[in-house]
UniProtKB/TrEMBL annotation:
Domain Thiamine pyrophosphate enzyme TPP-binding: 423-576
Domain Thiamine pyrophosphate enzyme central: 220-353
Gene Ontology biological process: inositol catabolic process; isoleucine biosynthetic process; L-valine biosynthetic process
Keywords (A to Z) from UniProt: Hydrolase, Thiamine pyrophosphate
Keyword hit for GTP-binding: no
Family in the record: Belongs to the TPP enzyme family.
Molecular function as annotated in GO: acetolactate synthase activity; flavin adenine dinucleotide binding; hydrolase activity, acting on acid carbon-carbon bonds, in ketonic substances; magnesium ion binding; thiamine pyrophosphate binding
Name of the protein this chain belongs to: 3D-(3,5/4)-trihydroxycyclohexane-1,2-dione hydrolase
Length: 621
């Protein structure tokens, strides 16, 4: 057997280089490179291995381990889970900094390869710098924290273990059923150990998107359910994007005249102005989509996890005789909500359904006309909410999030991608943002991770450098994680960033009060501070210090002009604008189950708890 003597780290990198995938009929490297922040736990092993191939396999340096890992998540999401980034860090805090991103990848079913350095497998120098010791279990390290947020986890304690474990990790990430993060913890000493690896371990391998076919009995049951429906409604989830089934979903909607709505992950699957697109659904849904969901006798959920925001905490599908047909690649998801499961790849399953359905069958015209009338009313509402207000040039007027969204959306083009993740903006964008491109809306709302926005924007730009990437971020998320602004400038990956400064965690402040609580510890004005209060952060000055072009604007009219300057800039451009922390779009929406204290001295909490108990009665159990 022909062998090649390499260190474990060198063999790992060489194997990654040999992986390819077919995208749009073209072979491309499966791995877009590696993110790395080196420390004593990975610089000698992984650092040396990556340096050897720096001209063939790019290593990107970030400023924060969480930031680089979040960028890797966004890269995979924007590439529809077909391309992957590896992330390597030192042991201890470098590794634990990536755990939040691993949780995000796990929640969103995104492939990221985590390669944290680990303590010595030999234990000879224990305890090493940054090692956390467990008195009764010397096999544990902080990297075991990755276990609950990894689809695949292994600790490589011998170089030859890589031969079986690394392909298994890649297979896990590429399988649409098990897709998610994989973690290989790499002990510092094992990274540098040599082994005679079989050369076939480095043979080029070309992967393709797997398309699991559905069960014929399930398909027959699904066809029967569709034919029996008088008020069908389609829920377009993220699986439509990941299956590359956008065109098939559109064809299905149009052929059978079934109205459709979109989850956060599914938004963009239909153009916003498609006559059968009712917009967002659920807690942050349009009035048209939610009304249709309440009346529908058949809900066809395609590629969605059916989380609480989609189902309004299991209260939205209110027709007592409704059937939920769940098309999903993952049996775990297809069986949720006591659904009629149709397990299979979204693209293939839609094709098979069209082949089985009677060619003349369509949703009743009365139903289509009813929901389209609702939708026209909703579109008029969006026009009103996002219109430029009379106070657009008033420097004393604090604009709402909806005001700012309207300005940015009118400025954006079909080549723009909006990026967001946390706070009140995901809900506002889900309701109000209009996109005609399936790549135009990138909102991470599975983990809803504050700090994702700026790092995520970087990952989106890496995946689709030809697109204009616009990041909307609140002051809270900006202050949590902003260092990758400097990385974007360093890499020449231009972002347009709009910081909405409402001086605190406004979304949670509103939720706190909705639950009867007093405003406390969310807005800066309600926090424990020195007598002079919390300082006013100069976001424009801060961004400039990180290398970006920047400015503070005083009103919406100034924002319009600033966006033009940002467009002309050749590097990342940050625009800060003060906004009102209190308003949110009241139109549309649905109930969300947020538990209220059963005992409180506040009358407001008591009243909220009474209303909560009434709302709970809408749930099936």
């Amino acid at each position: 057997m022909e062998t090649l003597r390499l260190t474990m780290a060198q063999a790992l990198v060489k194997h990654l280089q040999a992986q390819f995938i077919v995208m749009n009929g073209v072979e491309v490297p499966l791995f877009g490179g590696a993110w790395a922040i080196f420390g004593h736990g990975n610089v000698a092993g992984m650092g040396e291995a990556l340096a050897q191939v720096k001209d063939q396999f790019t290593t990107f340096r970030a400023h924060n381990e969480q930031g680089m890992a979040l960028a890797a998540c966004a890269y995979a999401k924007q590439h529809r889970r077909q391309r992957i980034m590896a992330c390597t860090s030192s042991i201890g805090p470098g590794a634990t900094n990536m755990i939040t991103a691993a949780g995000l990848a796990m929640a969103n079913r995104l492939p990221v390869l985590f390669l944290p350095g680990d303590v010595f497998a030999t234990r000879t120098p224990d305890p090493v710098l940054q090692q956390v010791e467990h008195f009764n279990d010397p096999t544990l390290s902080v990297n075991d924290c990755f276990r609950p947020v990894s689809r695949y986890f292994d600790r490589i304690n011998r170089p030859e273990q890589l031969i079986t474990s690394l392909p298994a990790a890649i297979n896990t990430m590429l399988d649409p059923v098990t897709c998610g993060p994989a973690t290989l913890a790499l002990p510092q000493d094992v990274q540098t150990m040599a082994f005679d690896f079989p050369t076939r371990f480095f043979t080029k391998k070309v992967h393709t998107l797997r398309r699991n076919r559905t069960d014929l009995d399930q398909l027959t049951a699904a066809v029967d359910a569709i034919k029996a429906a008088r008020k069908p409604l389609i829920l377009l989830g993220g699986g439509v994007h990941y299956s590359l089934a956008v065109e098939e979903a559109k064809a299905f909607v149009e052929q059978y005249q079934i109205p459709a709505c979109e989850t956060q992950a599914g938004k963009g699957a239909l153009a916003w102005d498609h006559p059968l697109n009712l917009g967002s659904v659920g807690v942050t849904g349009s009035s048209a989509a939610n009304k249709a969901a309440q009346e529908a006798d058949l809900i066809i959920a395609i590629g969605t996890r059916l989380q609480d925001f989609t189902s309004a905490s299991r209260t939205l599908f209110a027709n007592p005789n409704h059937t939920l047909l769940s098309i999903n690649i993952t049996p775990f998801d297809a069986e949720k909500h006591n659904a009629l499961p149709l397990v299979g790849d979204a693209k293939s399953t839609l094709e098979e359904l069209r082949a089985q359905l009677t060619s003349g069958w369509k949703a009743p015209t009365s139903w289509s006309n009813q929901v389209q009338a609702l939708n026209q009313a909703w579109l008029s509402t969006v026009d009103e909410v996002t219109a430029l207000p009379a106070q657009a040039s008033n420097k004393h007027y604090l604009p709402t999030d909806a005001n700012v969204i309207g300005v940015i959306n009118r400025f954006a083009s079909t080549n723009s991608t909006i990026v967001q993740a946390a706070g009140g903006l995901p809900g506002e964008l889900h309701k109000l943002w209009r996109t005609s491109s399936d790549l135009g809306y990138h909102v991470e709302y599975g983990f809803s991770c504050m700090g994702y926005e700026l790092a995520g924007g970087l990952g989106v730009k890496m995946a689709t450098p030809e697109r204009d990437v616009i990041v909307m971020v609140g002051d809270g998320s900006y202050l949590m994680l902003n260092s990758e602004i400097a990385t974007s400038v360093m890499l020449g990956l231009k972002l347009t960033i709009v910081v909405l400064d409402n001086r605190g965690y406004a979304c949670i402040n509103r939720l706190q009060q909705a639950c009867g609580g007093e405003p406390f510890n969310n807005l800066l004005q309600n926090c424990h501070t020195v007598d002079s209060g919390a300082p006013k952060t100069d976001f424009a000055a801060h961004a400039k210090a990180l290398g970006a072009a920047s400015e503070q604007v005083a009103c919406l009219a100034d924002l319009e002009a600033a966006l033009v300057r940002a467009k002309a800039s050749d590097k990342t451009y940050v625009i800060a604008i003060d906004t009102d922390p209190m308003p949110s779009t009241q139109e549309g929406g649905a109930w969300w189950d947020v538990a209220v204290p059963e005992v409180s001295s506040r009358d407001e909490v008591k009243n909220a708890e009474r209303q909560y108990k009434i709302a709970k009665q809408m749930q099936p159990y």
